[in-house]
Amino acid sequence: MSVTGHTSSGGRTESPQGQQKAASIRDVAQAAGVSYQTVSRVINGHPNVKEETRKRVQEAIDTLGFRRNATAFALASGVTRSISVLTSNTVLYGYAATLQGLEEASRAAGYALGVRVLTPEDDLDRAVAAAADTAGGIVVIGFDQLGAEALSRVPANVPCAAVVEAPPRGHKPDRPAVWADDREAARAATEHLLALGHKTVHYVAIPASTGTRRSAGPRAEGWRQALKTAGVTPPAPSGKGWDAQAGYEAGKKLARNPDVTAILCGNDDLALGVLRVLHHAGRRVPEDVSVIGFDDAPHSEFVTPSLTTVRMDFQGLGRAAFGLLRAQIDTDLPASAPAPADPALVLRESSGVREA
Amino acid sequence: MSVTGHTSSGGRTESPQGQQKAASIRDVAQAAGVSYQTVSRVINGHPNVKEETRKRVQEAIDTLGFRRNATAFALASGVTRSISVLTSNTVLYGYAATLQGLEEASRAAGYALGVRVLTPEDDLDRAVAAAADTAGGIVVIGFDQLGAEALSRVPANVPCAAVVEAPPRGHKPDRPAVWADDREAARAATEHLLALGHKTVHYVAIPASTGTRRSAGPRAEGWRQALKTAGVTPPAPSGKGWDAQAGYEAGKKLARNPDVTAILCGNDDLALGVLRVLHHAGRRVPEDVSVIGFDDAPHSEFVTPSLTTVRMDFQGLGRAAFGLLRAQIDTDLPASAPAPADPALVLRESSGVREA
DNA sequence: GCCCACGTTGTGACCGCTCACAATCCTCGC
DNA sequence: GCGAGGATTGTGAGCGGTCACAACGTGGGC
Fold first, then answer.
1. pLDDT tens digit sequence for A329-340
2. Disordered: where is this region (chains A, B) (predicted)?
3. How many Å apart are CA B50 and CA B166, to the nearest integer?
4. Among A116, A263, A352, B109, which residue has the least CB neighbours within 10 Å?
């Protein structure tokens, strides 16, 4: 198999004169025989402009192909109509879907959207600052430690919203934020497994946004709480990452243990890895072991066995976060923040009655 | 299952005075007892500044927490150090991974990155224009018709690069672009299936970036060519979308036909759907039918049966596209465009020798 | 017939920074 | 001891828009 990986430099028709720079407001003014201020009025739809004048200016705008310079507008008016998203990932389903919601909402509102990925090597203050002075506001995706940390570094005077893990009971984040009730969802999923006859439920954790303990985070809490309520001592959670490989690794030990009949996973990728290792270990799903994931990634419905999981409205969270941010920027707006859908347990093939 | 979906408005400590606006270059100048131009020299690392002066200015910068206003800089210098990505999707693996490569490269180069999703309802010219005057250059992800169309609308005077499907043999795109040799990869995959003893190979297509025919696009071409070379008449391709659901739909007919023993899919999501429908039809993979996907999405290794697929270096394509764009903006740069890795067939469980 | 209010338009200053150029200061060589 | 020339610094103008305000009409009310 070969590759061309070819590169072609486009045939620019770059005349020696270079491309004439874009028409400015003053060019238009001259062409229309008015002052630049009048042009400004026209492009901003100011009421007090004589209809005939407006028409003349509009024609000049059209023939010159004038477009208002966004940079100059931003400088002069102080309005930026753009937001910047800070996230540690853009590919994992939860992040990607949240980003999608954010993009959709911002586009609908006429805002440009910037993306800045955070890495462990980053100087977070610098990253936040860079985002802040590029855009009119910041949205932080704080599902993980990196995001949460970045969020805490956002200067108080920059408009900011976040989508985060559900905060500990009774706590409220110090910045506007949206979240779904993962805790309750995890509890419901766990209770479902218990109701299916499983004596206990094991948990393969996603990294928590706060601290490094596997037992931290709302999903783990919900799971633990359900077990406790049922009078079961929660087994130690496992897991050390977000992807299927991490699920595979964490699942090795569980797969070997015949007492393990039910596994809740912090996300669907993890669950996929668990499913895989169970398959390798010769344990059938759901006959021998039930597996439940989290997030309802697009492919979860199509793997075999199809994955029972908790559907999360990440797009909705993204949209809501944008609403929260916009409310700070366009104070005096209808502040419409459509509520995200509730998490919902989706029953599929990977979970079933305990047979033993 | 309930949801809190809670919203908390952060406790802004907004004194009646409001936050004093950020320090400007002149504030710093005054504090340091120099002219604003000297401050400008310091922040731009201009050589001819007396060491002692530089130090004094730097101190003023630090104590005032000065940060150069990006908007003003852009306006005055005409340099934007930001790029904008136009894409019809951000979640599908190929797109998301390309975007990831783009983000990574732009961040490394100190460029901010904007994302603008294209929809069928969009006024493409408007969308392109908006992207163009927000950023210093545009990268178009042209895997599909929407992207390809947008690319063709980019005005000649705006710096632009694209990552596209491999263009027809002998053709070169009229804009700088990168692509992988999907055609060759598809051919290799098809030949592999043929070599496994399959009499023919069916194809479930992804939408082509040009035209609407399922038989268009490099992947389809490579597949068809391999069959023809082997003296086999290519069966009609199926497929009408990008996702697993589309694969499932397209696979229904194939699953019913006992003569179908090998299926090549335009991407891994499609393949997942095909796998699923084959499972429902009681046909074993790879014993009864071999399936090969395209792209090597992260989960393809972990589904059961694991998916034989063609690994694509989308991140590399993204990085290369950024390099191409940057070369137009920072003319006079080392123009380092690291070549993307070649597509590579990854053999896994879903393909095997024909047993019949 | 006059004044005032309002609709319409133009002027100046400024957003925060850069550029080009002029002005000043030193230092060196003879 | 003096002029040349480079190092260092300051000034003016401008990027392409916006804002505030002044300057025009023009019509209606008295």
1. 987 776 676 899
2. 1-23
3. 55
4. B109
